[in-house]
């Protein structure tokens, strides 16, 4: 089976959606890409924590472990350089060792600046050879000046641009396996579907991998109304044809893709059918999707007791607890956390992010700082999403049409969620309790 890591290779070549029902038709077979001829075997997660450990061990065996190139291995994760890299091997460094590939150092000379302050003429690393240059500004008068002068005057990037670049780097943190996040709230109309679409679109537009949102709302979910529909296929069709799905292009025939590249897997629109979407159905769906997608977002209904919910909670790496910016919204979100705590999901709650969503223009006299404090004490982080006229329309959502402060809040939310990506790979899965 094709792996998620081929996303970049096949993205442009994604198969067009079928016109109607979702049968995996021959037309859905890919004409290009590395996937042709693959075996249908279901692969496990592509990476495991052991992979990194093996690399370190091998380097230690070569005696390279002390080389500071690990510092650049994953600067955004911020853990590897200090946590896993052992110190220099005991004993004197072998003076006759060949230079480490790519570092261009001379035996006996360190790679960095020498302690006497004289430039190290033997060091051909990029940091030594490239003249420091300011990044081109991205916004405001700085950008205007830069562009207007034909690039001759570069005032450098603003604090805001630098902060945004930092957030984007966090959103792009490496992700091993498939990260599953569910939007939850006991109260209806607080913005779960809106959050699913906007957060998913933010990830999809900034990351190179594949992102999908699944509608698990038993009551005629509205997720599929948030992007232009390319297919009438639903999760029910995908499950029906699951054993014929081999490649990404097969599963793509059942999804619709928005301008951000976010894909959506719709639910049945007949409540009598969607009500019957069970825990087993949800697990089968996610098991299938995690072979092709790196981030799976699930838009839930309001009920915590509906049939698919146990599956949603058991497989989720994290939750987004959505509250409106009102007292009843905050109480419902808090009650959601109480219920989760009481039903064995305390760990999941502590990994979750609370979102205070301004579904109305004003929050009246509600002290939202205190509401934030309440959720901050129970969840990993709290983010506020401002009121946005484009979101208020309740139609298809395009990131480009959002106000800049809404986009900034979404970027912060995506970065906050992505901060958990590193831990998800090494997380021990919650045992599945008997029903
Ligand atoms: N940040 C926002 N700014 C303006 N309007 C918003 C915002 N978020 C949500 N809305 C409005 O609130 C409505 C309800 O949002 P949404 O459908 O996402 O809620 P929900 O929690 O999924 O509801 P349900 O429980 O019925 O599934 C949207 O149609 C939109 O009009
Ligand atoms: Mg909804």
Automatic annotation (TrEMBL):
<feature type="region of interest" description="Disordered">
    <location>
        <begin position="1"/>
        <end position="121"/>
    </location>
</feature>
<dbReference type="InterPro" id="IPR050625">
    <property type="entry name" value="ParA/MinD_ATPase"/>
</dbReference>
<keyword id="KW-0282">Flagellum</keyword>
<dbReference type="GO" id="GO:0009898">
    <property type="term" value="C:cytoplasmic side of plasma membrane"/>
</dbReference>
<feature type="compositionally biased region" description="Low complexity">
    <location>
        <begin position="14"/>
        <end position="37"/>
    </location>
</feature>
<feature type="compositionally biased region" description="Basic and acidic residues">
    <location>
        <begin position="1"/>
        <end position="13"/>
    </location>
</feature>
<dbReference type="GO" id="GO:0051782">
    <property type="term" value="P:negative regulation of cell division"/>
</dbReference>
<dbReference type="GO" id="GO:0005829">
    <property type="term" value="C:cytosol"/>
</dbReference>
<dbReference type="GO" id="GO:0005524">
    <property type="term" value="F:ATP binding"/>
</dbReference>
<dbReference type="InterPro" id="IPR025669">
    <property type="entry name" value="AAA_dom"/>
</dbReference>
<feature type="compositionally biased region" description="Basic and acidic residues">
    <location>
        <begin position="50"/>
        <end position="62"/>
    </location>
</feature>
<dbReference type="InterPro" id="IPR027417">
    <property type="entry name" value="P-loop_NTPase"/>
</dbReference>
<dbReference type="Pfam" id="PF13614">
    <property type="entry name" value="AAA_31"/>
</dbReference>
<keyword id="KW-0969">Cilium</keyword>
<dbReference type="GO" id="GO:0016887">
    <property type="term" value="F:ATP hydrolysis activity"/>
</dbReference>
<feature type="compositionally biased region" description="Low complexity">
    <location>
        <begin position="75"/>
        <end position="85"/>
    </location>
</feature>
<feature type="domain" description="AAA">
    <location>
        <begin position="180"/>
        <end position="325"/>
    </location>
</feature>
<keyword id="KW-0966">Cell projection</keyword>
<protein>
    <submittedName>
        <fullName>MinD-like ATPase involved in chromosome partitioning or flagellar assembly</fullName>
    </submittedName>
</protein>
């Amino acid at each position: 089976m094709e792996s998620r890591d081929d996303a970049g290779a096949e993205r442009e070549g994604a198969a067009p959606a079928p016109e109607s029902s979702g049968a995996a038709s021959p037309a859905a077979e890919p004409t290009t890409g590395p996937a042709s001829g693959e075996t249908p075997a279901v692969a496990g997660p592509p990476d495991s924590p052991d992979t990194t450990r093996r690399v370190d061990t091998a380097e230690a065996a070569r005696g390279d472990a002390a080389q500071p190139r690990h510092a650049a291995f994953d600067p955004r994760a911020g853990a590897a350089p200090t946590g896993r890299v052992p110190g220099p091997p005991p004993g004197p460094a072998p003076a006759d060792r060949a230079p480490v590939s790519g570092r261009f150092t001379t035996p006996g000379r360190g790679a960095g600046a020498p302690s006497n302050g004289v430039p190290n003429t033997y060091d051909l690393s990029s940091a030594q050879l490239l003249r420091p240059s300011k990044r081109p500004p991205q916004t405001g008068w700085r950008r205007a000046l830069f562009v207007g002068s034909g690039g001759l005057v570069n005032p450098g990037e603003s604090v805001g641009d630098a902060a945004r670049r930092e957030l984007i780097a966090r959103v792009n943190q490496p992700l091993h396996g498939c990260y599953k996040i569910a939007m939850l709230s006991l109260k209806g109309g607080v913005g779960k579907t809106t959050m699913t679409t906007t957060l998913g679109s933010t990830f999809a537009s900034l990351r190179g991998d594949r992102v999908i949102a699944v509608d698990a709302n038993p009551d005629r979910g509205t997720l599929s109304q948030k992007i232009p529909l390319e297919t009438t296929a639903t999760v029910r069709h995908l499950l029906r044809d699951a054993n014929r799905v081999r490649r990404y292009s097969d599963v793509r025939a059942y999804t619709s893709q928005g301008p951000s590249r976010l894909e959506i897997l719709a639910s049945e629109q007949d409540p009598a059918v969607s009500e019957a979407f069970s825990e087993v159905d949800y697990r089968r769906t996610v098991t299938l999707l995690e072979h092709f997608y790196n981030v799976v977002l699930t838009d839930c209904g309001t009920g915590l007791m509906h049939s698919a919910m146990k599956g949603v909670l058991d497989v989720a790496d994290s939750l987004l607890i959505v509250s409106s910016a009102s007292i009843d919204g905050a109480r419902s979100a808090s009650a959601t956390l109480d219920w989760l705590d009481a039903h064995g999901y305390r760990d999941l709650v502590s990994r979750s992010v609370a979102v205070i969503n301004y579904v109305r223009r004003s929050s009246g006299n509600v002290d939202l700082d205190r509401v934030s404090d309440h959720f901050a004490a129970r969840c990993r982080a709290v983010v506020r999403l401002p009121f946005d006229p484009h979101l208020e329309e309740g139609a298809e959502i395009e990131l480009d049409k959002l106000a800049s402060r809404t986009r900034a809040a979404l970027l912060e939310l995506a970065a906050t969620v992505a901060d958990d990506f590193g831990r998800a790979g090494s997380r021990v899965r919650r045992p599945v309790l008997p029903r």
